[in-house]
Amino acid sequence: MNTPRVSSSANDTRRQGPRVRRRLALVLALLALAGAGLLARAVDLQVVRREFLQQQGDARFLREIPIPVSRGSIFDRNGEPLAVSTPVDSLWANPPELLAHTDRIPALAAALGVNAAELQRRLEQRANLQFVYLRRLMSPDAARAVLALHTPGVYEQREYRRYYPMGDVAAQVLGFTNINDQGQEGLELAYNSWLSGTPGLQRVIRDRLGQIVQSVDLVREPKPGHNLTLSIDRRIQYLAYHDLEQAVTKHDARAASMVVMDVRTGEILAMVNLPSFNPNDLTGSTPGEWRNRAVTDVFEPGSVMKAFSLSAALTTGKWTPTTPIDTAPGWYMMDGYTIRDTADFGKLDMTGVITNSSNVGASKITATFSEKRLYDILHGFGFGRSTDSGFPGEASGLLPVYTSWRPINRVTISYGYGLNVTALQLAQAYSALADGGILHHPTFVKGDDNPPERVLPEHYAREMVGMLRTVVSPAGTAPMARIANYTVAGKTGTAHQAGGGGYLKDKYYSVFCGMVPASDPRLVGVVVVRDPQHGHFGGTVATPVFRRVMEGALRLLDVPPDHVQQWYSQLPPAATSSASAGAAP
Q1: Which of 164, 156, 201, 159 minimizes the C-alpha distance to 181?
Q2: Per-residue exposure over 297-324, b if at least 16 CB sit within 10 Å of its own CB, e if not
Q3: CB 549 within 8 Å of CB 258
Q4: In CATH, what is the architecture of 72-229?
Q5: What class is the 234-281+292-573 domain?
Q6: Are 387 and 428 a contacting pair, CB within 8 Å?
Q7: In sequence order, what DSSP letters do the residues of 158-198 get, joined into one string?
Q8: What count of Cα atoms within 13 Å lies in the side-chain half-sphere of residue 118?
Q9: CA distances from 22 to 18, 19, 33, 37, 524 (A)
Q10: Per residue of the chain (585 residues), what is the pLDDT tens digit?
Q11: What are phi and psi of 140, to 5 degrees?
Q12: Which residues are catalytic?
């Protein structure tokens, strides 16, 4: 019996079938594995790491850019601008992008007015950054001229620059801002948070060239700075600057300051310092010129302090304006020191001590009451403590505590040596006398809440003002302070400057403090001239400045002459009302 044969081709087919299936299964498994991997990757990207990847994408194309805001303007009391912010352009570059076109750098540098090699070096040093300023605070026209070159990687940014219309006339009071429009000195610094505002923030999409292609949303609303209205009257400020500058030139003085204050409110109407500087261009100026000397510099004031030491004498009840005092022979010795007058005035009354500015008379009167009484009066008028004006760097002066005084200290303090004051403190103290013994703290802000405090009974303050009126008489030390049709009261001071080894022989402070109209004071002016070379008495150096400035200020503020005020005060109420109604505006 024959066994059937199976062909070799059939056997091969049967052997290959399982192999094909295995290969197919392997392929399918690989495809399934790849699909699972892709699915897992998709889940990872779309779910697990979605936030991270979104942030990475945004970091490359989504940007948050600031929205610049204008700094608040500063106005004088009449609404005239003293400091304003004007829009300017700043140019910046993307260093990697610009360095990819180095052939364009020379033309760009020429347009910017800089050295091409230096510009390229700066860019190469910052090649890992995407932002570098090329030039800031350019006028829009100048910026457009540079952008017209269409240099790759160069862009513009809007900013603001501070401008001061009065220039050096009010420089130390206003101060200035830095390149980022932040206050650095003066009232710009004191009220920086009020003036600055809050920049906005906007989210945008930029393309690879840095151009904004879409605004996504507003992250933070921009809030412009608040405006500030000062008590300064720019017209009086100009007067004070002009006349003080003339005095500095005439007497070849090293420095000078003037303060004009409203007696009834404590508002500062003018404050001037020389030498000054241009806040619009600080090139060549020094920190010493930036200083507001009327607030920061202290000095021994000399005889202007007699108004307060003799006010203390009035409060004892032992002294009146007519109480006599013998000043002969014009000098006397105390504790080894010689107290001198400029002449032998002989027998004077208390008013005569003020009229003739007698050091002998003032010191003898002050010796009749306690150190504590003198200290309390001086401290009450604001000496030895801050005026609370809020001005940066304000000095408190120096008034030693009375428990540390020797007998000679009480004597010298009575006529202005042995203590330090600022011009602003003198203005505050004389304003308190002028307002019947009520002290108003100085303020630079119009309408500022300024609670008064009584520091001297009114009748004593009125008596002292009456005594100070004699200083401006022909017999007094300040006849050059007289103003036609207005009564003036005030006091001169001439003080030696202190040096390392004592008082300097030929270095003086020339001072005058006055009030107008004396019958019903409205304004107080203080003039301090440091180290005048041609003349040094307060009555000849400082007093003429006071007269000229106050003449103009009274006219500008429409303060009626004294005889007109007296005429109105004598009218019955009904007549006063009708007269006022028919008066010219």
Answers
A1: 159
A2: bbbbbbbbbbbbbbbbbbeeeebebeee
A3: yes
A4: Alpha-Beta Complex (3.90)
A5: alpha beta
A6: yes
A7: EEEEEE-TTGGGGHHHH--B-TTS-B-SHHHHHTHHHHH-B
A8: 7
A9: 6, 5, 16, 22, 111
A10: 455 555 555 566 566 667 777 788 888 888 888 888 788 777 776 777 777 666 655 555 556 666 778 899 999 999 999 999 988 888 888 888 888 888 888 888 888 888 888 888 888 888 887 788 888 888 888 888 888 888 888 888 888 889 999 999 999 999 999 988 899 999 999 999 999 988 777 766 655 555 555 555 666 777 889 999 999 999 999 999 999 999 999 999 999 999 999 999 999 999 999 999 999 999 999 999 999 999 999 999 999 999 999 999 999 999 999 999 999 999 999 888 899 999 999 999 999 999 999 999 999 999 999 999 999 999 999 999 999 999 999 999 999 999 999 989 999 999 999 999 999 999 999 999 999 999 999 999 999 888 899 999 999 999 999 999 999 999 999 999 999 999 999 999 999 998 877 888 889 999 999 999 999 999 999 999 999 999 999 999 999 999 999 999 999 999 999 865 554 455 555 443 333 333 333
A11: -55, -40
A12: 303
Return the CA Rg of the chain.
39
Portions of the chain given CATH number 3.90.1310.10: 72-229
Q: Where in the chain is the domain with CATH 3.40.710.10?
A: 234-281+292-573
* Amino acid type, 163: Y
Rounding to the nearest 10 degrees, give the CA dihedral for residues 394, 262, 260, 452: -30
Q: Is 132 helix (H, G, I), strand (E, B) or coil?
A: strand
Size of the chain in residues: 585
Longest dimension (CA), the chain: 176
Which residue from 441, 435, 423 is spatially nearest to 512, judged by alpha carbons? 423
Cβ atoms within 10 A of the Cβ of 522, count? 18
Global pTM value:
0.82
Q: Which neighbouring-strand residues pair with 340?
A: 331
